[in-house]
Design a protein that fits this description.
single chain, 19 helices, 378 residues, Hypothetical protein af1432, flat, mainly alpha
């Protein structure tokens, strides 16, 4: 098609800015108000900046590796449980549900959701703890900070700039996860992703622990929230047990938490009617559960911590993974030539310990085990 024909075609379509004007609330983050990218780029004719960010994260190598990274439970315990990738997709789904109900920018929400765990190392939080200990003399390790490093420096997909050149809002949103105690109140889209993350792991860790036999349903009935969910399910569906009861309770757990957030957040937004995203941030408003739900969530999470995350099976698996990472951290410093050339070169910029830590953090569980067996098992 000729350029003139292309332009005529685009002129007959609704632009993403026009769509946002119709669908988004005044306090949502509108694309027209974006602070842009560190390296300026020409606007796309029909894809908004946050949709492009979402696609860049989606097509990154680091995102694909989430398919073989531990969430909580390892592959030694079966294949039902979530990985980092399935967790990320569930967070994105719940976050978009909340965002759509509040008339927020779903493209920005999805970009943030797909990005939020991209910096997790192999072996879940146990792997992060091990790398943080290894790098304690060099600033420690944070998966949130490493996520920023990936999309700003380590991912190489474009010849014009390092990293993915994401928008200021996406980078700032990820940055707010690094230190939640300082800085301005984040955009509502950022807050929605954090809440969806909390809702998701409450539900899926409960689900996975039951499915893998680490807990019984009677154990979970010790918590107020699960007792309430079970009562709601039985009132609607009658006496159930086993797999169907587990599935319906998990569904109810998500449904109730999302509804609670929308009820309390929607009431504040209706009463205060912020006229822009900037005004909402300046207000200091924090989206979250009501008092009763917050208390019940805290009880459930404390229960999961004691009875699931510290379960002997998990502790044993975590210890093996941590020992493996520590051995590899020391080994690659002794023999840096075993690393890919770009990580050997990166040591000139960030130092060898940090470069080794970044190389290890980017590994999948399977690749990490393979490299350990290949180079350091004897």
């Amino acid at each position: 098609m000729s350029n003139a024909h292309d332009q005529a075609t685009w002129n007959t379509l609704q632009t993403y800015l026009e769509r946002e004007d119709v669908l988004l609330a005044p306090f949502a983050m509108h694309s027209r108000d974006s602070q842009g990218r560190k390296c300026p780029e020409t606007d796309h004719p029909y894809r908004g900046p946050y949709q492009r960010d979402r696609d860049r994260v989606l097509h990154s190598a680091a995102y694909r590796r989430l398919a073989d990274k531990t969430q909580v439970f390892t592959g030694e315990m079966g294949d039902y449980h979530r990985t980092r990738l399935t967790h990320t997709l569930e967070v994105a789904s719940i976050a978009r549900t909340i965002g759509r109900a509040l008339r927020l920018n779903e493209d920005l929400i999805e970009a943030l959701a797909l990005l939020h765990d991209i910096g997790h190392p192999p072996y879940g939080h146990a792997g992060e703890d091990a790398l943080n200990e290894c790098l304690s003399r060099w600033g420690g390790f944070s998966h949130n900070q490493y996520g920023l490093c990936l999309v700003e420096e380590l991912e190489v997909r474009y010849h014009e700039f390092p990293g993915l050149n994401l928008t200021h809002e996406v980078l700032q949103g990820q940055g707010s996860r690094v230190d939640k105690q300082s800085g301005p109140c984040p955009l509502l889209e950022v807050q929605v992703v954090d809440l969806a993350d909390s809702i998701t792991y409450d539900a899926h860790d409960t689900d996975d622990a039951l499915a893998l036999g680490l807990l019984t349903f009677d154990d979970l009935l010790e918590t107020v929230l699960i007792r309430e969910m079970a009562q709601r399910v039985q009132k609607r569906a009658g006496e159930l047990s086993g797999e169907m009861l587990r599935k319906l309770v998990v569904h109810e757990l998500i449904e109730l938490q999302v509804g609670d957030v929308l009820t309390h957040g929607g009431q504040w937004l209706h009463e205060h009617e912020p006229v822009s995203a900037a005004v909402l941030c300046e207000s200091g408003f924090r989206l979250g559960p009501g008092t009763d739900m917050a208390q019940n969530k805290k009880e459930l999470e404390a229960f999961l911590y004691e009875r699931v995350y510290r379960h002997p099976k998990l502790v044993r698996e975590r210890s093996l993974g941590q020992a493996q990472l520590k051995t590899m951290f020391a080994g690659y410093q002794q023999w840096p030539e075993l690393m890919p050339a770009r990580f050997q070169s990166r040591a000139d910029t960030v130092g060898l310990p940090r470069s080794v830590g970044e190389y290890l953090a980017g590994m999948t569980d399977r690749y990490c085990s393979q490299q350990f067996e290949r180079h350091f098992s004897n």
